[in-house]
Amino acid sequence: MERTFAIIKPDAVERRLTGQILGRIEGSGFTIRAMRFEHLTRADAEGFYAVHRGRPFFRALTEFMSSGPCVVLALEAPDAIRKWRDLMGATDPAKAAPGTLRKEFGSSIERNATHGSDAPETAAFELGYFFRGMDLI
Question: Which position among 5, 6, 56, 116 has the lowest Cβ density within 10 Å, counted as fewest Cβ atoms?
Answer without folding.
Answer: 56
